[in-house]
Amino acid sequence: MTEGETMIIVENLRKNFEDFTAVDGISFSVKAGEVLALLGPNGAGKTTTVRMLTSILRPSEGRASVAGHDVVANPEAVRASVGVLTENHGLYARMPAVEYLHFFGELYGMPIALRAERIDFLLTRFGLADARQRRIGEYSKGMRQKLALARALLHNPPVLLLDEPTSAMDPESARLVRDAIQELRSAERAIIICTHNLAEAEELADQIAIIRRGKIIARGTPLDLKQQLLGVGEFEIRLAATLNGNLVNIPPGMQISAQGAKWLRFRTRQPEQDNPKILKALLAQNLPVIGLQEVPRSLEQVYLQAVSAPEGVEVSYAA
Amino acid sequence: MLRNLRPALIVTRREIRDQFRDWRILVPILALTLFFPGLMNFAAREAVSFVERYGAPIIGDRLIPFLLMVVGFFPISVSLVIALESFVGEKERRSIEPLLSSPLTDLQLYLGKLLAVMLPPLLASYLGIVVYLWGVYRQVGWSPDPILLLQVVALTMVQSLLMVSGAVVISSQATSARAANLLASFIIVPTAMLLIGESMIMFWARYHILWWAIFGQALIAGLLVRTGIAYFNREELLGRELDILNFKWGWQVFWGAFSGGAKTPAAWILREIPRTLKRLALALFCVLAVFIVAGWVGAQQAQIFVLPPEIMDIRNLQDGFVQSVEGFESLRFFSVESVPLVAMHNLRAVLLATVIGIFSFGVMGLIVLMLPFIIIGYFTVTAARAGISPALFLGAFILPHGILEIPAIAIAGAAILRMGATLSTPAQGKTIGEALLRALADWVKAILIFVIPLLIGAAALEVFVTPAVVLRIFGG
Predict the structure, then answer these.
(1) Is A178 helix (H, G, I), strand (E, B) or coil?
(2) What is the ipTM of this complex?
(3) Class of domain A6-227
(4) What is the pLDDT of residues A80-109, one digit of tens each?
């Protein structure tokens, strides 16, 4: 697979369980090298979407393809191309970790030498090498999560579907896993992460899709979503001198949103053009600048804004 | 098949290894394999010495082969427990999703699980048989006839396959281990009855009948395996979380299949009923063929179980009929009130065939409907032997009402067979419940539109026309 190739295509996907619609006509695509984070409250349809993308559930309508294989027409090829970290880790408690990984490697048709090599690599990568012969039942929650992730990565799949990849992990382990995901992205994979951890989504994802009641209600890059939902970006300038009530001569189109004795905030749609202009204006007025930075806006605000929007409102749709 | 078997065996291997790590499975298997045959040896030795004291060695002779069968059966009973939780247990332990996400096909996954739950108890059974035979040879010097040994080995295998295939079907469709255990009665009760029947055969020493038992169980086990594969799908395992009867959904599926989307009764009659008949066509063909075979079987039985010729002597018959017109009246022929009684009798037979047909893939239902044709075949040949032309016999006794009754029974049989076959036939994207509801809708249509009207008409003919024709032809 080459970087930029579309690895996951989802078109108007719908899933009904008898008279309940779990996923209601969603569409998105993920290219190789990209990470898409699916955010949404419990029961929003994230896991159902992942299960359709692994050909476990059959879509009621619409189509989806993964690594070039249609999820309905070619389910075995889809599953062979996907590494899945499921919401429940699905580990066999009585099995030693190394035997567990060998079992899945064999199911994916990996030759024994390659299997052994990948198992060694992944167990070492996730700090489980010393516990390789221990029964999984003796593992801690975090260790189990890492082992499940190792299983998902074992056959080096071009598509990764990770449901809550860092849940139940201590901060150090979570960092380890996040770093691993960053590495995997650079290895030109398409990755979908379902998570409740908004900071993690912001850190890892190129695109974010917020799902509510089976529908994607907001989608875009983290920056796009913030602009769409929270308004244009706000910046703060800290000064070395007091303003003393002087009005700053700001460029046209910009708007001061607040100001204090030694600071001021303004909003702009084009920070790359407007920020140099305002700095120039301040310096022209002999007002020394200590710093200029964007006022932090969390993804949590975006998420809460999106999920509290009235039913039927599509918040943002990036291309 | 081999292509499917290799990945399936990976699953089998893992499952078996896992079973041998679980002492709760291991201890009963070992006990039933090593301790129980020893107990049976003791029982056999004591029984033989006891009955010999009273000059009844035949009881000992029959008891030893019977215990051989019991020793084979007990370890495989463990397979039922393992099989019942094979899918649903993993689902409850939340370990099944990665397996479902692997590139295994449904067939491979199903076969892998089926073999895993069957092989260890079956091998334990065979080991138990060896232990028992060794013990009984040492203690009383008995060794089995090779054919009998082959029968017990085969019987043990088909019983194991029957229980396991049924339990795996339940396990793959149930939403909880508790529900699967409750549904296990559908396996335990018939198996217990089978075992009672087989025990009677063993004590009766009619060992050749065991081949029929083996054949019948192998057939049903094959159908159960097919049902399991047909209806096994990943979606069912993960999609449903709760056992809730959704009457609204059930009614929608049933009504949709019953109405066929027709908006008016006329459209329903003109469009949906022909479509239903078309769906039943193959089953109808099979049922008619089965009825012909049934007639032939009856005719064959008439050669074996011969009635005294005077019973069917035409002169006796003529005299008897002439004299028994009053007897006819006592049977309430020529009476309007008899029409619903005859119709209801036939309808009850159809309903009985339907109920047992659902639980036997339609087979037992067809056997019920075959019985009248066996009787017809039997009496036609018997009458022929007494000098009555078969055409005349059939034309007088059967044809007048059979012209309506036979099509009614054939259509009912086709609907029953289709409903039974639905269980073992893959239904793309449909659950067992949905497929059964659709087949039930076709059955209801067939009963309402064809069977009931035809049976009422046939009853009227049977009450008024058939006796008149019989009296006219044979009344002298």
Answers:
(1) helix
(2) 0.78
(3) alpha beta
(4) 999 998 877 788 888 999 999 999 999 999
